[in-house]
Every structure is written in structure tokens, then in C-alpha cells.
Amino acid sequence: MWISKTPLRVSFLGGGTDYPSYFHRERGAVLGGTIDKSVYIQVLPLAPFSAQKYRVTYRQTESVDRIEDIQHPVIRESLKHYNWDTPLNIATMSDLPGGTGLGSSSAFTVGFINLLNQMRGVSLTRYELARRAIHMEQTILQENVGVQDQVHAAFGGLARYEFSGEQISIEPLRLATSRLKLMNDSMMLVYTGQERSASAVLASQETRTKSGSNEAYLKEMYEMTKIGASILEEEGDDPAALVRFGDLLNHGWQLKRQLGTVSNSTIDEIYLQGRELGAWGGKLLGAGGGGFVMFMADPALHPAFVERFGAERVVPIKMVSDGSSVSRID
Asked: Which residue in 7, 180, 292, 297 has the fewest CB atoms around it within 10 Å?
């Protein structure tokens, strides 16, 4: 049995500049990191005389004899891409639901490609893994997605990634232990109660980006990734630094709302209530339209968020340093 574990991510700043339509003509960058919530894929090779050659379990269950008949697009196209010809039982699980702005779709793609290559005896570098996942989603599947989710899932950790043409560079952030601990203790997710397709939400944003309507916003968002990294890395008082970072997140969220169909009345109300409860700052995660709102707030205030939104909707999170990993159980 083989199992891949791939972390989900939180994007703090720069989202929207990681699309080829933008960074092929202007520099793009994102600041974010992987969290202690993951996507898991379990694969068990089946005997050649099994009733069906491929059994796939996710939100639904498929049992088919031909790879071409698998409905799950990433699984189908990845198996085809690697010329897979032996029977498999594939099962997927996740700590948090998909379609909620945490990069779960790309985390799944990274995890499955990592898993198939390990089963073939091939160990990809983190960069190769990210590149292959990007190629699968953007070129083979023709998905309307950026590139930050794949690099976060492959590399792991808190980092600033820069995109220019075909180049991707990584700048891991260097935080003092005390600041990272306070940052982890301060973060929480609040579920909006709404799920969405990122590709569908991004269609109108992409149209605006290609037309140049979002140019000024995206350029400012790019510069904010540099400011955010500087705030987190600078020496000094930890709470004061995180309050400043929260203010930057708040400004970034106001800019993001200008990109297109990002927010709605439900999301706006959750964000307003979080700020009224004392959050340093926050933002809606992902493309927009639903999912999770991430807040950073003094840990002493977290019980007030649970009381306001309900324990079932508030999820504490922490940053993790690991990217996608694969293990084999004999």
C-alpha cells in the first residue's frame, strides 16, 4: 500500500498575480504557506484477475476496466500520461472539504503525481513535482488555475514565490521561533458555509486581467508580498509585527475585492464581524465566492470567535514546513 500526504495552503498576499496571463508580461509573486491540514491518497495494487481493473473512491465510487472510462479527470489523465497498465484501488481523503479556497485541487494533483512516480521508482525534485502538476492542470486538463497552489504543495513551508515568464523562484521566510509560534497561535479559519469551483469563479477575473482592468490592483498586490515578507522577518516586538501584518492583510483583502466576483454579502458580513471581534486582519482564501475566511487575532480572543460563529465553523490552523510526501506500507 502506498499513501501520499500533501498539505493544504493559506495564501496571504499576491493571489491573482500567479496566472500566466499576468506574469508572462509583469512580475507576479505570492506570500503564503502550507498548513497542518492535508489531502491523502491511498493506493493499493490489485491482483491482475480482479473483477474491475480500477476502483476509485472519492465523493463517489468508480469501478471500471479501462483508464479512459475513469471520470475523475486528474486520476484518468495522470494514469494515461504515465502509461499505467496494472490494476489499482485508489482512495482519497481530506482533513477539510474541497472547493473552500485552500488549494485542495492542486494539492491532490501534486500528491497523485508524486505517488505514481514513487511507485514507478522515480523520485522527483520539488521543482519537478510542481512543474509536472502545473503542466497537468494547465496544459492537459486546460484548467483555469494559477501556479501558487502547486508550488506550495510541492515545496511546503512559509515562503514568497516569484513568477516571471517561465521562471519560478522561492524565498523561504526566516522567522524567529517566538514570532512563528505567535503567528500559529493567532490563525484560524471561519467557514462561510459556501463551496465553489475556483475555475468558474476565476473566469471573469481572467477576462478583466487580460483586458488590463486589474493592472493597477495586481501591481500593488505584487509589491505587498515584499512588504509582508519584510514585516514577518524584521526584528522587534512580535505582537506589534503581527498587528502590522494584519493591517496589510486587510488592505490586500480590500484590493482583492476589486478584482471581480470575489465577495458577497455573507462573506462581507463574516469579515466585518471578525474585525469587530478584534482580529488584526484577514482575508477570504482562494479565488472567491465561498470557502474559508482566514483571521489572525490575539489567541485570547479566539473563544469569542467560537461563540460568535460556532465551534463547528471555526478551525484553528498552524503552518507546517513539509510539502508532499509518500510512504509505503508493506
From this structure: 180
Q: Answer whether residue 324 is part of any domain.
A: no
pLDDT at 140: 97
The three three-digit cell numbers of residue 79, written as one number: 494514469
Residue 311 has what DSSP assignment? T
What secondary structure does DSSP assign to 83-137, as a single string?
T--S-EEEEEEESS-SSSSS-HHHHHHHHHHHHHHHHTT----HHHHHHHHHIII
Instruction: Give me the count of residues in the chain.
Output: 330
Residues paired with residue 33 on neighbouring β-strands, in sequence order: 10, 158
Range of 138's domain?
2-173
**What is the C-alpha separation between 203 and 181, in angstroms, rounded?**
38
According to the model, what pLDDT value does residue 265 have? 82
Q: Do 153 and 196 reside in the same domain of the chain?
A: no
- Residues 159 and 275 grouped into a single domain: no
Q: Do 98 and 191 fall within a single domain?
A: no
| Nearest to 294, CA basis, from 144, 194, 186 | 186
Query: What 3-state class would DSSP assign to 6?
Result: strand
Domain count within the chain: 2
Which stretches of the chain score pLDDT less than 70? 194-213, 259-262, 287-289
Whether 135 contacts 120, CB under 8 Å: no
What is the pLDDT at residue 202?
A: 57
- Render pLDDT for 68-127 as a digit per residue (tens, 0 to 9): 999 999 999 999 999 999 999 999 999 998 888 899 999 999 999 999 999 999 999 999
**Do 49 and 182 fall within a single domain?**
no
Question: β-pairing, 2-13 with 28-45?
Answer: antiparallel
Residue 329 is given by DSSP the state -
- What is the rounded CA–CA span in Å between residue 65 and residue 126? 33
Which cell is 255 given?
484590493
Domain identity same for 234 and 291:
yes
